[in-house]
Each structure stands twice: as C-alpha cells, then as structure tokens.
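Practice problem: SEC31A isoform 23
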Amino acid sequence: FGTGQPLPPLQIPQQTAQHSIVLPLKKPPKWIRRPVGASFSFGGKLVTFENVRMPSHQGAEQQQQQHHVFISQVVTEKEFLSRSDQLQQAVQSQGFISYCQKKIDVSQTEFEKNVWSFLKVNFEDDSRGKYLELLGYRKEDLGKKIALALNKVDGANVHIKEEKEESEFLPSSGGTFNISVSGDIDGLITQALLTGNFESAVDLCLHDNRMADAIILAIAGGQELLARTQKKYFAKSQSKITRLITAVVMKNWKEIVESCDLKNWREALAAVLTYAKPDEFSALCDLLGTRLENEGDSLLQTQACLCYICAGNVEKLVACWTKAQDGSHPLSLQDLIEKVVILRKAVQLTQAMDTSTVGVLLAAKMSQYANLLAAQGSIAAALAFLPDNTNQPNIMQLRDRLCRAQGEPVAGHESPKIPYEEQQLPKGRPGPVAGHHQMPRV
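Answer key — structure tokens:
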C-alpha cells in the first residue's frame, strides 16, 4: 500500500461443478402414499380408501399394509326423493285425481290449493263446469239468487202467477182492431209491414227508440237483418253491461279477453269457459294469461298460471311459475315438475295432443331435475324424466352419462347415440393432469 502500484488481480480458485446422478424409482416411496382419501363420483357415489398397516405374524416390527376401498351412496335430499317417488307412482298407476286431492289437502297457501284444484278438474267429467265452480260460479247458487231477485216462490204458485201475467199482456183474439196507415211513425211502420219491408220497419222502430219492437221485427226478417239490427242496437245502448251483451250476442269472445279490466279476469275466464268453442278455447285462455302475466301486479301475474292450466299450455306455465317462484331449492323444482307432469298427462288425455316435444325452458328444467335425481342415486328415475325429443348437447351428454352409469340397458329403450367423438390416446402420451378435466368433444 502507498506505493502507487496497482494490485495484482485476485486469484479466485475454480470450483468444479459436481453432477449428481438421480436414479429413477421403480415405485414411489411408502412415505408419500396417502393413508386415506375420498372422492365423489357421478350418481352421488362416495369412494373412500384407506391404507391400514397391520402387524405381521413374525414380529411387531414388520408390518403388512392392507388397502381398502369403500363405495357408498350419499343421499342428502330425502324429502325430495320421497316426493319424486310419489309422483312416479301416480303416473304409473294413472291415479291422477287422488294425487291431486292429496296435494290439495296439504297445500299451505290458497293459491297452491287453487292450482291443484284446477289441475284435478282436467281429469273429471264436465271440466268446464268444474272450472266455473272454482271461479265462484255455481249454477245452483246462481239459480237461487235469480229466484230471490225475481221474488219467486216454490210450488204451484209460480206457474199460476206466470200464466196470469202472460194472459194480461197477450192481445185478445176477439173483437176488431184498427190498422193505422197515417203519416206518423206507427202508420209508416204499418205500411212497411203490409208490404213486407221489414228493414224499413226496423229502421223506423230504431229511430223512435222502440228497441224491443225492432228486435222482434228483425227476427221475423231473417238472420241478416237481425245481425244488422243487433249492431245498431248495441251502438245506441249505453248500459254498464252493453259490451258484455255485445260480445255474447256477436260471439266476439276476444273482445272480452282483450278489453276487460284485469280486476275482472275471473269473469272474463268464466265467459270463455261458458261460450268459447273448443278450437278457440286454448288461444283465448292463453291471451288472458299473457295479459295477466304482463301486468305489474305480482298477484295478477301468479293468477296467469290458472289460465295456462285451462289452456293446457305447459311451456307458458313453466315460464310463469319460474318468474313467480324461487326455483333454486330442490323442493321448489319438485313443486314445478309435479305440476308440469300432471298437466302434460291431462293434455294427453283431454286434448289428444303430443306432449313429447318440449321447449328450451322446459327441457332445461327437466334436465336440472334429472341431474338432481342422479345426484341422489336415482339413475333410472332421472332417465325417465329426461326429455327424449331434444337435440340440446347438454341433455344428450347427460343421457349418455345416465345410461353408462346404469350399466344395463333399459327394456324398451334404445341406447342413445354417443354425443361426442371417441379418440384413442397414443401410447406414451401423458394422461390428464390432476385437477384438470377433459371435456367431451361435442
């Protein structure tokens, strides 16, 4: 130091890298083996294993290892499975009326009771009459109300009174009467009648506001004149029930359904049940249900379900029920499927319609239901509820998994076409990494 000369370079000894040789193990070491493990599989199966070390006969230091694998069925939704079994039994035995009655008896809400009452009516005679009774219109009760309003009494006094009243208003057949042909309204009507001009006679009566005379003369003048007279009468009439009378006489039921106050939806549905022809009945019920469903009132929206039950429209019932109810819980989905299955059977029996074709929403609900059944171990039931006539990939894949999980083919059912392509892995190619699942190629 202090000489001003640079220091010589530092000599660092060279380190030689040591190459360690790792020999491949033929078997993993025993300490890395898991002593226990568990895994869930499709169909609600729980697979567990344990590696138990047992002392050998030669001494306590040497131990033998036994490997045990257990497969058990896990059931977490017992009430769900019980209700599903009851539904399947009702379908197999065709005991729909008794099934609906049981549902009515255990209903917790008035609306639920009404829904099952409407579903039950589909399997009974005179379904339209029973629907009217459920809406509050019993013919017997109505007859009593009308009799009370007319101050009628039971027995022969009714006939005596009626005969007396009729005789008072009938013109006497004896004596002479004057046929006026003056220039006033009566005279002009007389002249029109004498010449067979019913149309002019009716016009004169309408002009003079003699509605009853106009209708009576129009009946005598034929159906065409009667129809025109009815239209003119309804145009001049302004009573509270004129529009209802107009719809009934003109058979314009669509007017009632489209224009009525939705607070009177029961009355509108009653009119459709009473008068609508079979070929227009379902469409009118659908129309009323759509109006109720589009209304802002949640109570009216739920009542649309009753209209769809009358119409036999399963798809709209599913959509309406899904909006009104929480379908995330298995029992909520069970509530919906019960109603769907019963309504589909009712449509098959009463309307002779093919219900095998299902829409997207219903197929999704049925697929969700089948998944829940499969998760509880009910593979056969899941296959029974899964829709057949659909090409949705997720349903086709689920059907394939269910058939494979069942093992043996179901009698009377063809094995489904595999919804993906099978590919052979070449030898030496690594398998799927743990934690990653290979999805089938659709």
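Discussion: Residues 330-350 form the longest helix (21 residues). Students who identified this feature from the tokens alone can consider the problem solved.
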